[in-house]
Design a protein that fits this description.
Largest sheet: 17 strands, mixed
Mean pLDDT: 78
Radius of gyration: 20 Å
Helix content: 10-25%
Low-confidence stretches: 188-211, 216-221
Number of helices: 3
Length: 221
């Protein structure tokens, strides 16, 4: 029995330093922003509030919240509902997992020197793997601000989307190419005529429901 207790103590001593919960906090809010803590009801969000694992953030119309997840910054835009699944440090990696049910976010992923970031944003329909630090995402459309994103549909088909490019997927069709997304944005800005095929472009995308998952991995410096 004594040997068992000693072995258990040594195992605990070796395991605990490899796993540490990190704090997610609210930097600022605007408008109606609510949080649902595990096993509790909804309450208003205030700046400085700590967000525990399992909490759900919900923003109203013309509202947003700025969150600090470790060293990363996340803007939760209006009409968004998102869950914090995990925010931990394991050895030299900071692991962040979020579930976006609906809405739009903008993320700027950062890590301290000597650490790697494993940043995942998930929802039911798709997956994207990101090399880079900044992007906007609303569940079907991905706008890359910096870096390169590998954008997957549910069939694991992918395209690489670079900085300044945009892509979309409904989870079944292959994500549109980044250059195509750039051309579509140009057409919307300068060409207001409804030529052949215009009815099946951006209009249909707005009616698609579902989401993608985003994974960010930053190499160790």
């Amino acid at each position: 029995m004594k040997k068992y207790l000693i072995a258990l103590t040594l195992l605990s001593a070796l395991t605990i330093p490899l796993f540490a919960e990190l704090n997610a906090t609210v930097k600022s809010v605007r408008g109606k922003v609510e949080i649902k803590l595990p096993f509790k009801g909804w309450q208003r969000v205030k700046a400085g509030m700590v967000i525990p694992k399992g909490a759900i953030i919900s923003t109203g119309f013309r509202s947003y919240a700025i969150l600090k997840l470790g060293d990363s910054i996340l803007q939760v835009k209006q009409l968004t509902r998102m869950k914090l699944v995990e925010l931990v440090k394991r050895k030299n990696t900071v692991s962040t997992k979020l579930f976006l049910r609906v809405g739009k976010i903008r993320a700027k992923v950062r890590t301290s020197k000597g650490l790697r970031a494993d940043f995942k944003l998930k929802s039911p329909n798709s997956t994207a793997a990101v090399r880079g630090t900044e992007f906007e995402y609303d569940g079907t459309t991905l706008n890359v601000i910096k870096g390169v994103v590998q954008f997957f549909n549910r069939l694991n088909q992918k395209r690489e989307i670079g900085a300044g490019e945009e892509s979309e997927t409904d989870g079944i069709n292959l994500p549109s190419g980044g250059e195509t997304g750039r051309m579509l944005k140009t057409n919307v800005r300068y060409n207001t005529s409804r030529g052949p095929g215009s009815g099946g472009g951006g209009g249909s995308a707005n009616g698609i429901y579902g989401s993608v998952a985003l994974t960010i991995s930053i190499p160790q410096e």
